[in-house]
Amino acid sequence: MQEDWLRFGKPVAERILDRRTRIESYAPGQVFALVRWASNDYGTVGSTLTIAQAAGFGEPFTTLPQVDPGAQILLSVRSWPKVRQVFALIDAIEDVGIHPCDVAPDHWHHVHNRLAGGMQVRSYSPARHRDWLRRRKLQS
User: Measuring CA to CA, which residue among 77, 134, 76, 60 is closest to residue 104?
Assistant: First the structure.
């Protein structure tokens, strides 16, 4: 059995196909998290979590299963221990009142690189988030 679900994201449109299937659409630049896991009679055999940013017209992107046409990958982990670790980081961000899809994309790159290197991940603080929002406002 294989299961795909979205951990977070703010879709701009949603179409429900049946009880278990829906299609969500994201505007360019929006961030979302896709979780995929597979199991058999003996338990979980694979887990992945991908945090991605929806690509705009003409922007480069990576193709991902269930994501059409694709997105820029900010973070990707495989194996249940790493997925669980990222879930804990997402929960910590939500606990301080920040929606995970509003987090600076650079932070997700940081988390990906630190986990890949077996290093400690820096937390995402409200002060860092304020700085990100100010920087984004200056760029627009």
Answer: 134
* Half-sphere CA count of 8, side-chain side, radius 13 A: 18
> Domains of the chain: which residue ranges?
2-139
Could you count the other beta carbons within 10 Å of the beta carbon of residue 125?
A: 12
Each residue's pLDDT tens digit, 92-123: 999 999 999 999 999 999 999 999 999 999 99
Distance between CA atoms of residues 59 and 113, nearest Å:
23
Reduced to 3 DSSP states, what percent helix, strand and coil does the chain have, rounded to the nearest 5? Answer: 30, 40, 30
Question: Does the pTM exceed 0.85?
Answer: yes
